[in-house]
Amino acid sequence: MIFRTSARFGVRALALVGVALSLPACATVTRGSSQQFSVQSTPPGAQVSTSNGFECQATPCTFRMPRKDAFRITVSKEGYVSQTHDITSSVSGAGGTAMAGNILIGGIIGGAIDATSGAMNDLKPNPLIVTLRTPAEEAAAARSVAPTTTPTGDQ
Q1: How do residues 36-68 score in pLDDT, each as one tens digit?
Q2: How many C-beta neighbours within 10 Å does residue 77 have?
Q3: SS3 labels along the chain
Q4: Strands 121-124 and 83-91: what pairing?
Q5: Residues 96-135: pLDDT tens digits?
Q6: What is the pTM of this model?
Q7: Which parts of the chain are beta strand (E)?
Q8: How many CB atoms lie under 10 A from the CB of residue 52?
Q9: Could you give the CA distance from residue 143 to residue 135 in angstroms, rounded to a whole number?
Q10: Above pLDDT 70, what percent of the chain?
Q11: What are the chain's domains?
Q12: Beta partners for residue 75, in sequence order
């Protein structure tokens, strides 16, 4: 009789612990650990490759990217100068709210899950909008931004 009571109590305790551990990861459940990431270019039709292995043959295009990792993206098109951009992963407003919910409910484990899965983060900038330039346009832009030197007048 004591064995049955102990077994029932043990099963109930395990079920309660399982439910308690599965609830707190708010951002992971509501936002997921990946997001849509879009690349647009002028002119359209540029190739895109990322440092984490994603590619598309012609812009505009959209990838499903992990939220937790920053990466580098290269946009190129024949006859234009390639551009490389760094995409960052940082805590978003919605992710921060979900983390606050974890803390209020007492979900330290859920907070750890959200933090390690990247569910609290967003990739920025998103969408990435790129204007490609021809080599002549790039050279003209570089000349217009070149620093000018002026005499200092030390005498």
Answers
A1: 999 999 999 999 999 999 999 999 999 999 988
A2: 19
A3: CHHHHHHHHHHHHHHHHHHHHHCCCHHHHHCCCEEEEEEEEECCCCEEEECCCCEECCCCEEEEEECCCCEEEEEECCCCCCEEEEEEEEECHHHHHHHHHHHHHCCHHHHHHHHHHCCCEEEECCCEEEECCCHHHHHHHHHHHCCCCCCCCCC
A4: antiparallel
A5: 455 555 555 555 656 666 666 777 788 999 999 999 999 9
A6: 0.66
A7: 34-42, 47-50, 55-56, 61-66, 71-76, 83-91, 121-124, 128-131
A8: 14
A9: 12
A10: 57
A11: 33-92+122-132 (2.60.40)
A12: 48, 83
Taking the CB of residue 14, how many other CB atoms lie within 10 A of it? 10
Distance CA 32, CA 121 (A): 10
Look-up of token digits 């599965």: 22
